[in-house]
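Entries read chain and fold; for instance:
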Amino acid sequence: MIWSRTTTAHLPVTPEAVWSVLSDLSRWPEWEPAIATAQLDGPLAREATGSYAPSRGWSRALHERTAPPLRVTGHDEGRRLEITQPNPVGGMRVEWTLVPEGQGAQLTQTVEITGGLTPAVVLGVGADLDRGFLDAGVRLARLAGATPDPTLPRVVIAGGSGSLGRLLGARLFARGHDVRVLTRHRDPRLPFDQVIWDGRSVGDWADVLQSDDEAGVALVNLAGKLVDVRPTDANIAELRSSRVDSTRALVAASQGLGRPLVSWVQASTTAIWSDAHELRVTETTPVPEPGLPQMTGVARPWEDATEGANSEHLVLLRTSIVLDRQAPALQMLARLTRAGLGGRVGSGYQWFSWIHHEDWLRVAVAALGLDPQVRIPDGPLIAAAPHPLRNADLMAALRRHLHRPAAPPTPAAMLHVGAVALRSDPALGLTGRHCTSTVLRDAGFDFVHPDLDSALTEIYG
């Protein structure tokens, strides 16, 4: 049994500075929260021995009692470090490689776990190392001396502790921006400065939007409750209020600023068009009235709440399903496929609009006005790849990439029953939209992953 994950972080500091921290294994816990302790028994060299302990309580206790010494199994000074932790029937190998990238560095981490204990090691430490690596890369870069570029705008991300916020924060940090996160609850794993707010009213948190620097402040608003809940009146009201109230608070705070925000990217969703059937949706397609209450009924007031925003530039970023290994939607589809339930859902004819996380990040950066090659006008912007596909084709592609055989369909009635048990919304699987962006096309934006096979190959190999 083999489990392997490779992730690359882009760091705004030289490879030499990164290596000065990376090569000292005792500092691993300083930048990687999944690790509690680490040390070598002597100087760094190939075949040197040492030890580490995971942070998870049960895993740490078991590891400290039973694990043999780790070994340094690869060492190219300034470029590559590999350690291997054996166990009785396999082991875990962690490799880091460093290459120059412009004025910074590209750090790639590979975690490979083999043998009969693979599931336990993945659960105890491997998945944490993979899942948190971009956050860890930010901490590592700061320990290596990375500081924000004062000529670039500070970027404040409201709701930045979610998966997209963390990805965007890491990308903006790599570009040299000072990244701050507005959050209701402090997250010790988040590597950015966190400002606590209630998401409803203006308070001391609004100071983070103030700046006397010429570069100013940009805002990304991702705040809002996760959408995968039962579509009850109470849940829909909470979905709506968590978005509208926080947006209105940001608007009110912006109106008290001495100077406008340089840009504002307001999260929204292509679900604003509800179930669009065979309609070919672009930015100029009218929003339906009334639409589904859990879709149009949430997204329309969310966008409307930006009225009065004090910003030089404002984009309504209508995002489709973002494909990333950690994204909840793709994780759910992958679990179903691996369990033999990867057949079409309902008729299978509903459209599936999507975007790979790398392209979403590039769209968000352009929407902030930070990409001189791609100028995005104010107004709605669809974040979706140029090739939507039917649900049946989506599920076939997932089976192919996850190496699973053909599977029976999931009838709509069965999905409705299952959604009750899972406290989910069956409309998320049974409705769809064919969404593409004429704004991105006209701006000359080139997708890294324009088709689904390219996106899934990058994610699953």
Notes: The chain has two domains: 2-143, 154-460. The chain has a mean pLDDT of 93.
